[in-house]
C-alpha cells in the first residue's frame, strides 16, 4: 500500500466510524502556516517553496486540505494512542464518580438519574483528523491579482492537498458552502513550482450567461453531465508578468471517490478532469495508472467502521471502476461565496 492509500484510509476512517466518544482535540506538532502572497509590483519567487494558485473571475472561497505523508501519519497515530490512553484513564475516575453518584441517587430518588460515562474503545475513540488541522482556506479577501480576475496565491509546505470544495470558514467556528465529498482530487504541490488551477462553476455561469427563461432554478436542473464545481488549467494567470510562467503548472492529480463531510455542508462532486477521472452514473472511473483505497487496508487501521470503498488498481491504459455510495440527499448549492 503506497503512502497515498494510507492517507486516504485515515480520511475514510474519520468519516466512516460512528463515534460515541467525543473526538479529542489534537494540536498539530507540524508547522502549518501558509503564507498569503499579497498584490505587490514584484513577486520574489522562492525556489525552495511550494505554491498553490487559484484563479476565478470573481471573489470566491475554496479549501485545500493537506494530506499526511507517511512520517506525519505515524506521528499522528502516536498522538492518537497517547490521547486514547489519557481517555481510558479519565474513564476510570469518571466511572467511579458515576457509581458514587448513582448510589446517592438511589437513596433519595430525587433529581435526574446519573448517566454512565461511555468507555473509550478503539472503535469509538478519535482525535481531530490531520486534515482539519492543515486546512488552507482561501478567499474571499487577500487576492494576489484583482485586475479583471481574482487570483489567490499561497506559499505552502509541499505535499498532497485534497480539494475540499467551495467553502467559507467562520473564524468563530462553523462553515458554509459545498463539499465535493462524492468525488474530488488531491493535487501534488512541489517545491519550485506553482500548482495552479482555475475554478469552474457551471451553475453560476449559467445563471450569468443564459437568458432568464433558460436559466436553471437549482443545480438539480442542470444537464446531467454537469456538477457545480470543476478544476481547469489557468487562463488569465498566464498573462501576469510577475509570475515565472515556466513554473506555473497544472498539477498532477489523484482521484478520491469519497471525503468526510466534516462540516455538514451541501454535498456535490467535482466535474471530471481530463486524463484523471470521469463518471459513469454514481461510479468514479479513474483513468491511467491509479491505486485507490482497498477496504481491507482500511480495516487494518481500526475496527467497528463501515467498509471503505473497494478499489481496483489499474495498469497503464486501463480504467479502474470505484463504486461510490449514493448521497443521502441530492446536492443543492448556490455556487461560490463572494
Quickly give the structural class: alpha+beta
Oligomer: single chain
Give the C-alpha Rg: 23 Å
**Outline type:** globular
Explain what this protein looks like in three dimensions.
With 338 residues, this protein is of the alpha+beta class. It has one domain. Helix content is 20%, strand content 23%. It is built from four helices and 16 strands. Strands 3, 4, 6, 7, 8, 12 and 13 form a seven-stranded mixed β-sheet that branches. Strands 1, 2, 5, 9, 10 and 11 form a six-stranded mixed β-sheet that branches. Strand 14 and strand 15 form a beta hairpin. The longest helix is centred in the N-terminal third of the chain and has 39 residues. The radius of gyration is 23 Å and the shape is globular. The two termini are 41 Å apart. The N terminus is likely disordered.
Task: Throw out a few tags for this protein.
338 residues, 7-stranded mixed β-sheet, 4 helices, 20% helix, disordered N terminus
Compact summary:
The protein has 338 residues and is α+β, with helices and mostly antiparallel strands.
Layout of helices and strands:
Blueprint: H1 3-16, E1 35-36, E2 50-56, E3 62-66, H2 70-108, E4 135-138, E5 150-156, E6 159-169, E7 175-179, E8 184-189, E9 194-200, H3 202-209, E10 230-232, E11 248-249, E12 253-256, E13 266-267, E14 277-280, E15 283-287, H4 295-301, E16 319-323
Parallel strand pairs: 2-9, 7-13, 9-11
Antiparallel strand pairs: 1-5, 2-5, 3-4, 3-6, 6-7, 6-8, 8-12, 9-10, 14-15, 15-16
Keywords: Signal
